[in-house]
Amino acid sequence: MENLKNKNYLCIPEVAREIIKDQVQKRGSALPWANKEEYAQMMWQESVRSYQETVENNTGGKYLFR
């Protein structure tokens, strides 16, 4: 990913890792091993939000979503 960033690609962090990190920290249940449905819903919402935010704030670029 670093090589692509160096070539001016905008690399978007993976939302799954952030969700898991946040849920573990908060002792939440939206985890793939605890509540798959809640986790999937959160993944969907955060993925759409991340995509929309990227497109709105970075016109004309190359995007890579992890």
What does this structure look like?
The chain has 66 residues and is mainly alpha-helical. It is 59% helix and 9% strand. It has helices at residues 2-6, 15-26, 36-57, and strands spanning 10-12, 63-65. A two-stranded parallel sheet has the order 1-2. The chain is elongated, with a radius of gyration of 14 Å. 6% of the residues are buried.
Name the structural class: mainly alpha
The largest pleated sheet is described as:
2 strands, parallel
> Approximately how much beta-strand content do the residues carry?
5-15%
User: Would you count the extended β strands for me?
Assistant: 2
Q: How many separate helices?
A: 3
Mean pLDDT: 87
Basic shape: elongated
| Fraction of residues in H or I helices | 55-70%
Distance between the termini: 9 Å
Contiguous low-pLDDT stretches (5 residues minimum) are none
What kind of oligomer do you see?
A: single chain
**Spatial ordering of strands, largest sheet:** 1-2
SSE string = HEHHE
Whole-angstrom Rg: 14 Å
